[in-house]
Each structure stands twice: as structure tokens, then as C-alpha cells.
Amino acid sequence: MLDVLKKLEEEGYEATIGLEVHVQLNTVSKIFSADANHETEEANTHVSVISLGHPGTLPVLNAQAVEKAVLMGLACGSQISRYNTFDRKSYFYPDLPKGYQTTQDKTPICIGGKIPLFGTNLLQEQVELHHIHLEEDAGKSIHDEEAGTLIDLNRAGTPLIEIVTNPSVAGPDEAAACLQEIRRMVRYLGIGNANMEKGELRCDANISIKKKGDSLLGEKVEIKNMNSFSHVRKAAIFELERQLALKLAGEPVVVETRTFDPATGQTYGMRFKETMNDYRYFPCPDLPPVVLDDQYLAGLQPRANENPRVYRQRLTQKYQLSDYDLGILTEEKETAQYFEALCQQGVEPKSAANWMNGPLRSLLNEEGKNLSEIAIGTQQLAELIKLVEEDKLVYQTAVQQLLPKLPKATKSPLKLAEELNLLVSEDKAELEAIVREVLISLPKETEAFRKGKKKLLGLFIGEVMKKSRGKANPKVVQQELLKALN
Amino acid sequence: MKEYHRLDEIQEDLSLGKITCSQLVDYYLTNIERDKQLNAFVEVYAEEAKQRARELDKKIELKTAGPLVGLIFGLKDLICYKDHEVSGASHILKGFESQFSATAVERLLQQDAILIGRQNCDEFGMGSSNENSAHGPAKNPVDPARVPGGSSGGSAAAVAANMCHVALGTDTGGSVRQPAAFCGIYGLKPTYSRISRWGLLAYASSFDTIGIFSRSVEDNARILEAIAGRDEKDATSSSRQVAQYSNAQPHGTYRIAYFPELFDHNGLQPEIQEAYKNWVRELEKEGHSLVEESFPFAEYILPTYYILTTAEASTNLARYDGAHYGLRSGTSNDLEAMYKNSRTEGFGDEVRRRIMLGTFVLSADYYDAYFTQAQKLRRLIKEATEAILQKVDFIITPTTPTTAFEHKSHASPLAMYMADLFTVQASICGLPAISVPMGNDAKNLPIGMQIMGAAFEEEKLFAFSKIQQNNSR
Question: Which residues belong to any copy of the Asn/Gln amidotransferase domain (chain A) (predicted)?
Fold first, then answer.
């Protein structure tokens, strides 16, 4: 358990953490207009009279945004609202061209549900959701010392889902794990890119502490706009410690909005005056209610099942993987799918996991590519693994010489190995000759070995392998060496 | 040139070569110039209209002209026309040019109508006298000492004074019907959602409709037929098929509800009481079945309307903040001051009053007491009105409690709000209603009567209105 949680417990306190996570949806167009919804360098290019909030314009809801929000809800096991309305949330800010944000206040599209947590030593298995609602993102204010404040409205109208948890996240690690799982889910479902550094996934945390057993929550501090898992974790740790210290000193915790500064690892009260905002929510008269029926939801369920929890369950049950392997293999859907495909090609699960988490991953890192880019078919890899397991190819040779050639290969790994003359040689006489040659070239070491320095065997094996150009079977090499040495 | 009342007369003369589009445009431009002091137009598109008239005259020669050729129309300064200014008669939109045309405007232009200019109105459609305008008040052509009504006052005055043949206004609580009555012409507010709101500067979105001013029922029907119907740009626009309104013909007799309590209602000008009584008697004589009803929720209609419309207006007008377009106060040192100063300098008194009212009724502490209650009342009024319309074809009332009043005679906003008493019911309920001219009062000021029908029954409304039109000629 984290030190801060232990400290809280010793003093009779407990932490209450709730998260509000904003996820940008990767729809083709914006939520209420036909403007393109993707990244662009140039400011104010993905805009139209609608996203600029010009007089006389009206919003038209993007069905794709609804679909993506429902996918998230179904994957979380939420109840999906059959009757959806939109509300206007009024406040003035320069990056909000209409003077209100169109959001869902009364009828969030998803109610309840949970985010399963995955990781070691976590205090809870899942985090319960309060709701998920659909809304539009605001634009961006860019504060420039010379030019003053500049407004970029490319982002204005980007569809967002806001995932709101219950205040039941047990601690900083659980908060980070929850956010990680949300990112995984978003990517598995294909509803967003969830790059935190690009602001496609943003997190606010509401943090308070209360005496154990108190039914009322403590004074809530909201930490805004964190964009990394570790920031959320560190901010929560800092904030819990800060609040505990205040309580122990008999000082009040001020209800406020704070920011986290990654440079210092501390949270700071935001300078602007935080009066109680009255957003005057009211139903948007420009958007007719959206009614979702059973058939619509049933149609989306199969896609919603493509989520990390389902994959983890299936991979655990079917392949008995270690938590370590499971974690790596299910981090991304394409990795998990690749793994399953490898197993279907007849590769042993453990072996498939080892190959994927070992040599394949190294190759991907070297080439700076991901699985879909590298173009090594599971059939190719399965054949390569089989060659190794059948002792037709030496593991190191397979990894170092053959694997990197697979991406561009038009031939099967076997053909390739044959052409490159890499297959294990079955020629005993040739091997015996190499062994003799090696021992003669290393007289001191041979002497030492015979006197008991058995560790030198590795050196001899290495030399023989080198001389055989990776074609000798290491097991046979060892047998032959021992025979010759003894 | 002869004074035309119907487009088909114009089109007949065009096809006979008696007149040309260019002559028509010149004629209206002359009238606009003649009646400049009425302040009906904010901007006249003289050169563009002439140019377009020349093009259309060629099309007539080639027999390729569209169905609305010869129609010269004006546009309330609350509806967008691409690459032209639209101000909502407000300082806050000074110099703002729209980048697109309202769907209704586009549809008229596609059928070869000619747009001759934008017309004065109350700021953002808020008012009943056209006195709340950044462009100054418009005047009633019947008596320039009097208001033309509002908010679409300039449009009504222009059609009545023959400065254009028809005009598009907007009607949120009576803003087409009331000025039509004051100026002695026809004014239709169609069923909510019948005409796309794309390009209409929002005042109260769940009430706003584009409305039509005309000098005949026939033209009103033709214009509605041209501009009504589903528009993908307005999610609230109805997909119901558009009827052939221009073919509307009365069939036999109708069942008509009226409110006897209005015969001696002290809020009503006596001549209007008389006219209403006489109309009811005449209808009875003509063989229609007249049914007595009482005005449902009479004392709640105006409060319900003003709570809901100001609530919607307070958010609809939030976009006019000085940050993006229109007026930005030059006297501000920080963001908050910029907002406050721009909106204070940009909006007139009535608009500010309604924004504050709307902000108040939506505020957390009063939301349930006002907004929620008003929403419930809206449903009750709608149900009660629809219940009457289940039994009858129409509900008839006077359009206004008085005829056109003098400028600056309604000092209190509440007195002004009373001018909407009969028109807001149809707006609350989203029902179609038309004001038809029905004689004059002792000062020779026009009286208008309102016919309200069931949702999407404009065809029947036009058919019945034609009977009234024929009777009054």
C-alpha cells in the first residue's frame, strides 16, 4: 500500500477520489457540423459558420458520435439512455463561440457501468461509473505575450465523451489504473486515439479525505486538466498528503480548483476567483431528442465486446498466460489479436508470448513500427517458430538473421533459410571437424576446462556456432564438445 | 404601373409583355424612395435587383424563368442573405456580413424571385412596435404617426406601401401577424418546424418561425409552398410532405371556435370587439358552425410566453459577446470588462431586459419556480388548445387588442407585452395562424383578425382565409 494511504489509515482517515475523464472521439466530422475533426497544424482551418457560432446557424447531431459514445457505454456495462436530450451550459469564454457549451445534463447517454482495473497490488478490481455524457469540446485560447490571447477554433465542436466515476476510486494507483484502462478501452473500441499528450484524453480529479465511517464527503478539491497517468497519480498523492496535513494541523481544506505542476510535483490553487458558477443548464431547443432502440443497441454489442476486459478473460482462460505476458499482450488489441492468430497457427501459447514479447517487440522497437506496420504475417512467424522448435533452425539465427528479413520477404521462412544456407546442418563429420578445430585453436582453455573450469563450455559452444555460421544445433554442439573434451 | 395584389396578375402581365421585371424593380425602387420617411428598409439592394431583373427578363424571353419570376420580395433584417449585412436591428452586429443565405431565401431565389432589400424590425425580434431598432423606428404607412407593429414592422410597412410585393419576416410571438394587422395585409405564422430556421437569427428557438407578409392569401400560399419543407441544416425542421397550398380551395362550411368573453373584454378596443362580433355573426349566417369556447389559461399565456422566450433568448444571444464578430467595446481593459461593455453598448434596453429576465428564470435558485412551471404550462396550454382544435377546424380571435398605436405611446414594457395577447397562443402551441385584414376602425386604421388552425393544416387555413378575402373585397 502507498505510504500516503497508510498514513491516512493510521490517522483514521480515508481518501475519496473521483475522476472526470474527457475523451475526444475520432469521428470524421465534428459533433454538430460537417467540419473536419482531425488534427491540423494551421489554426482556424477546420471551422465553418457553425463552429464559429455565427448568427442564424443551427447544430445537427453527428450520428457517429452517438454510436461511439454508446460503444463505450456498452463496453462499460452501462445502462444506455433510450431518450437523449442535449442541454446548453452557459458561460462566457473566448474559446466558446456560442456562449454556451452543448452537453448532456439531464439525460447522459450512459448511466452507471464500471471500469475494470488491471494491474498488481491494486486495492479494487473495478471503478464504478456515475455516467458518461456526450458534449462538444471548446476551442483553444493561446496566450501569447506579444500578440495577446489568440483563439483557435479547430477544436471547437470536437465530440467528447465525459466519463464520470463515482467518488469511489481507492487511491492514486487505482486512479492511474482507471485512466489507463479507459485509454485501452477507447483504443480497443476504435472510438478515439486517446493520446494524452495531444489532449485527446484529459483527466480532472476530485479529491477529498474524510474520517473513516463519516457518511459525508470531505471538502472537495478539483485538480484540472492532467494529461498523463503519472501526473494523476502524483497529484493525488500530493493532494492527499496536503489535505491530511491541513486536517492534522486543525486547518480547513478550502474547496477550490487546483492545477498540478509536473515540474514540482505539487498542486497549486488557481488564481482566478472561483465563485459558484451557475451554468443555467437548459434543454437545447435546436436539437430534437435522440431515441435509441433495442435493435440499435444490439447491433453495436458485438463491437462493444472488442474490449480489453473480454480479451484478458479469453486469453487467461484459453492460454493460461502469466499476468506479465497477459499485460503486455493485451495492452493493445492488435497485439492480442496477433497473439491469438499465432496460437491458431499451432504455436504453443507460452512460446508465442515469448516470441512476441521478446524478439518481435525488439524488432518493432528497432524499426520504430507497430504490428500493423511491420508486415510480418502470423503465418510467417508461426513457421519460423516451428523451424526453431523442430531444431531445423537455431534460435539465435532465427532471431538475428531471419526475423528481420521477414517483413520484405516474398518467400516462406523455410525457403528463405534454405537460400541463405541457415538451416541446421545434419552433417556430423563437418561438425566434428569444427569442434576439433576450435579445441586446437584454444589449447589453454581446453587445458583449463579439463582441469575443472567447466564454465568455459559456453565459450567453446559460441566458437563452434560462429564457425558453423549459426547452422549447428546448439544441443548437438554441446554433446559433441563434451565428447571431445572428456 | 398598376398596383398588383397577386403574383399571378404580375406574371400574366409579364408573359403578355405588358411589363418587365426591370420595370417592376424600378417601380418598387421608386416607391421605396417615395416612402423613405417610413424607414421600412435598412438597406436597399437597388443595383443587384436591377441586374437580376435584367437577367430574368432574358430568361422570360427564353421561356426559362422559374415559377416565382416577377416576385419582388423584402427580407427582415433578422434573416441571413449571403455576403450581405445582417444586423438583427442591433448595434452589436454592426457591419456583420453573413456568409450564407437562409434556406427560405435560397429557395425563393432559386425560383427566380428578386430580393430588393433588408427591412427594419425590433432588435432581435423583441418588440411589438418596431421602436426597439438600432436603425430607428419604422412607421405605419396608413398613418406615419403610428407604429407599423413589430417586430417585423418594416416588412409589413413595405408590403402595405407597395415597396415590395411580399416579405419574409419572423414570428416568435406574433411578430408577423401583429404588424400585418396594423398595416392591413396578410401575415402568416406557419406551424413550428414547417419552414427551416437555418439563417434566422435565433430569439427563442422553440418558438421562432419564418413568416410571410403578402397582399393576398394566394401569394402567401405560394410563398409557403416554395419555402416550406425539410432542411438537413435544421434538425427541427419537419419532414412532412409540403401540401400544394396554392391549390387550397374552401370546401363547404367549417366548424369554428370563438371566445365570447372577448365581445366585451375591457382590454379590447371597442371597434375590435364590434368587428369580432360582426365576423362571428356573418360566419354563422354563411352556414359555418360556430362553437363557444373560453380562452384557455388566459392569464397564464403571456407569463408562460415571456418566461420561456426570455430563457431561450438569454442563451441564444450569448454569442454576441464582442469576442468573435460584431461590436467590441473599445473601452475595456480585461476580458470581463470587454464582455460587459460590449454587451451593454451593443444591446438596446428591451434586449437587455429580456436577457436579464431569461438569465434570472434559468438561475439555479429560480429555475423550478419559473422555468419548470412555465414548461408545464406550455404543455397544458398546448393540450387545451389542441383539444379545442379536435372539435373544430379553426379558432378565431382578433389579431390584436387595439389597432396601430402612436409612437412612444406604450411607455411600459408590460403595456407593450399586452399587444401580443392573442398571437402568443399559437406560438406557445406551435400552431399555424394567419392574420387577415377585416375593415378599419373609426380612424381608418386597419383591423386584423386571426385564424388559428391545427398543426400542419395550413392548406385549410388558406382555404378559409380566401373566403374572408373575398368577403372583404
Answer: 337-485
